[in-house]
Amino acid sequence: MEVWRSGRDGSAEKILLEIWHTDTGGNAADITSVCSDVKISESESGRCAEISLSVPDVTNLGITRPLIMAGDKITVKAGGEEIYIFVVTSADRKYPLRTVKGRDFGQYFEKNEIVIQFSGISCREACRKVFETLGVAEAEVCEMSETITGVYIDSAEDVLGEIMKLQQNADGAEYDYRLEGRKAVVYRLTDEAVSLRYKPAENVAEFDAGEHHERMSYSHDIGSMYNSVRAVIKSSGKKGEQGLPSKTYIVTDNESVAKYGKREKILNVSSDKADEIEELAENELKDKSEIKRTVKVVLPGVINARKNDVIEIKDDYIGVDGKMRIKSISHSFKGGIYTMELGLEIMQ
User: Fold this and answer.
1) 8 A C-beta contact, residue 140 and residue 118
2) Counting beta carbons within 10 angstroms of the beta carbon of residue 150, is it exposed (0 to 12), middle (13 to 18) or buried (19 or more)?
3) Which DSSP category does 274 fall into?
4) What is the pLDDT of residues 5-64, one digit of tens each?
5) Largest Cα–Cα distance in the chain?
6) Rama region for 211: left / alpha / beta (φ>0; ψ in -120 to 50; rest)
């Protein structure tokens, strides 16, 4: 199937999208022509891209029947370049279709716990060391100069999160990582908007997908919001029982409490970080005190749009005109129509 991709010069570029199936024996086949209801998504809460699709599961009518099983791989190529590689996590058969779901290699960062030591190396090199530990042969890591020292025993995902958080605390920037085909990429979030150029037909001028979209939807929710944090260092009581905290620090957003009532969160702090208890509490409040505001919109599909990209978009209904960051994205190919649904964050 043909899709649009924004070129580096900002122009729209039509390329071929292919979907390949590779079984556990290494046998590969192009299954693009028999795939239906394809959806590729990146959620706000995770760093693992996911895919779902259906293929025929009949033996008659001369239809190709891919025997996709759990553990197989699904590779998505754009212009011949591998942009996603998924491991099949489930394959459900219900006549006349086989419905397949998969997750990219980011799942191995979640599932593998590691023991790793850093001795005065940069955060950039620490990220590379984590990838090497996991057997990731190709990695692209942005500049991260803060020094890290210590032993970490946790999931690879959480270790990477700690490294990025250390660098963020040092320079105030935000960092994240994702998989691009076989390559792991650690990047710094920017406020620079990307181009999402789209050309619906040869005889129609190209335009930015952000200029033509369905009406946006907007919601705000205080369900997960806290406006007070009580940081405590636990102490042991008799016979190992939990005693009263040996140290407590409370930080509160009084303006928020006046509006919504008090919503307090307990933050447990280890004794070795007692000197940092105030900073940890304030950072936790900053992270938890924001009201969750969700903006969703459906746009014409552009295959190289990714989570954390910034786009420029206008919508008179909810009153926005400017930059918004993609927090979640779902590419959908159905009935020959390619669209993408974006969850967006309004940027100040």
Assistant:
1) no
2) exposed
3) G
4) 876 566 778 889 999 999 999 999 999 999 999 999 999 988 999 999 999 998 776 778
5) 81
6) alpha
- DSSP at 47: S
Question: Token pair 């919504």 is at which residue?
Answer: 260
Using alpha carbons only, how large is the chain's radius of gyration in Å? 23
Which neighbouring-strand residues pair with 314?
321
Name residues whose C-beta falls within 8 Å of residue 35's C-beta, 6 or more positions apart in sequence.
19, 53, 54, 55, 333
Both tokens of 131, joined, read 């990838």
Q: How far is CA 15 from CA 42, 119, 159, 196, 327, in A?
A: 22, 46, 37, 14, 25
Number of Cβ within a 10 Å radius of residue 143: 10
Is CATH 1.20.120 what the domain over 2-104 is classified as, yes or no?
Answer: no
**pLDDT band of 348, cuts 50, 70, 90:** low
